Amino acid sequence: MVDKFIGTWRMVSSENFDEYMKAIGVGFATRQVGNMAKPNLTFCLDDQGMICMKSQSTFKTTEVKFKLNEEFEETTADDRKTKTIVTLENGKLVQKQCWDGKDTILEREVTDGKLIAKCTMGKVVAVRTYVKEA
């Protein structure tokens, strides 16, 4: 069911992302860079069912490889060391990151040909929208 995510997605809009980065504890300088970055998101799947998710921008490239429902250690773009698990719920990829007694949820779904990423930390929600590259 992850097939619809496979491919490269280009970010076209980002709402409330600065507030989200503040909520997860990202410092000012890193937020400035994070707000300017317009990352491409690429998903691929290997023969073993391992999903690769790569975020590429002019500032930073991060890549994580994981299997659904299996916890793994992730170093995020802002250098948090998290215990992360990704599940597939109602057609959405739900990524839960836990660190230092905190947790955040990133939900990604494909709707009307767009990939919508909803980042939630407490009451703060950011929404980033991507379109598929040809």
Question: Can you describe this structure?
Answer:
It contains 2 helices and 10 strands; from the N terminus they run βααβββββββββ. It has one domain: Beta Barrel (Lipocalin). The two termini are 21 Å apart. It has helices at residues 17-24, 28-36, and strands spanning 7-15, 40-45, 51-56, 61-66, 72-75, 81-89, 92-99, 102-111, 114-121, 124-132. Helix 1 runs antiparallel to helix 2 (28-36). It is mostly beta strands. The model has no long low-confidence stretch (mean pLDDT 96). Strands 4-3-2-1-10-9-8-7-6-5 form a 10-stranded antiparallel sheet.
Inertia-based shape: globular
Query: What name goes with the CATH superfamily?
Result: Calycin beta-barrel core domain
Instruction: Give me the Rg, rounded.
Output: 14 Å
The whole-number mean of residue pLDDT values reads: 96
Instruction: Tell how many strands the DSSP assignment holds.
Output: 10
The profile of the biggest β sheet is: 10 strands, antiparallel
CATH class: Mainly Beta
Which fold name corresponds to the CATH topology?
Answer: Lipocalin
- Termini separation: 21 Å
- SS-derived structural category: mainly beta
Q: Count of helical segments?
A: 2
- The overall number of domains is 1
Instruction: List unreliable stretches of 5+ residues.
Output: none
- In the sheet with the most strands, the strands line up as 4-3-2-1-10-9-8-7-6-5
State the order of secondary-structure elements, H for helix, E for strand.
EHHEEEEEEEEE
What is the percentage of strand-forming residues?
A: over 45%
CATH architecture: Beta Barrel
Q: Give the helix level as a range of percent.
A: 10-25%
Keywords: Transport
Pfam family, one: Lipocalin
Domain Cytosolic fatty-acid binding proteins: 7-24
Family: Belongs to the calycin superfamily. Fatty-acid binding protein (FABP) family.
